[in-house]
Amino acid sequence: MIAAGVLALALTACGDDGGGDGAAPTPTAETATSAEPTPSETPSATGPADPAAAEKEIRKNWATFFDPASSTAERQAVLENGELMGPVLEAFSGDERGQQVEARVTEVEFTSATGANVTYSLLMKGATVLPDSAGTAVEQDGTWKVSVKTLCGLVGLSGNASQLPGC
């Protein structure tokens, strides 16, 4: 199953910091930092009207998306185009190990009023398995969501992303 491949790769990940414009962000395996995340405090000319509230929502929604206790419907609600991404979510969430993965957002950097780069670590049973990964969040229909690019980047670690609709 795809999620098994993703997690197997995550446990031994050696990625690079891919992800230019239009490319899916590639989770990276860099040295973990011990710095505590701090919310954005000053508005950016290219960020949302309330960056602190947007960052708080991004962190909350990423936690929901990667929470093993979240249902598919809850994950779809915080995933860009979630209603269209059911097959990818099922593949990602259907594996036993996939149900043990969580994410911890460490940094949010707004790139526009509706986009942000997100640095996060994947954890399995509380242990970091993929530190300092690069992803993106998008504001869609008034909600900050995990981008399809991020999910497909994770699925792509298995080499099977092209076999799933949406990736």
TrEMBL record:
Q: Which residues form the Low molecular weight antigen MTB12-like C-terminal domain?
A: 51-162
* Keyword check for Nucleotide-binding: no
Q: Which domain of life is it from?
A: Bacteria
Q: What InterPro entries does the entry give?
A: Mtb12-like_C (IPR058644)
- Region Disordered: start and end of each range? 14-54
The alphabetical list of record keywords is: Signal
Q: Which residues form a coiled coil?
A: none
Comp. bias regions, Low complexity: 23-49
Bilayer-spanning residue ranges: none
Query: Hey, which family's this protein in?
Result: Belongs to the MTB12 family.
Q: Could you tell me what this protein is called?
A: Low molecular weight antigen MTB12-like C-terminal domain-containing protein
Lineage of the organism:
Bacteria, Bacillati, Actinomycetota, Actinomycetes, Kitasatosporales
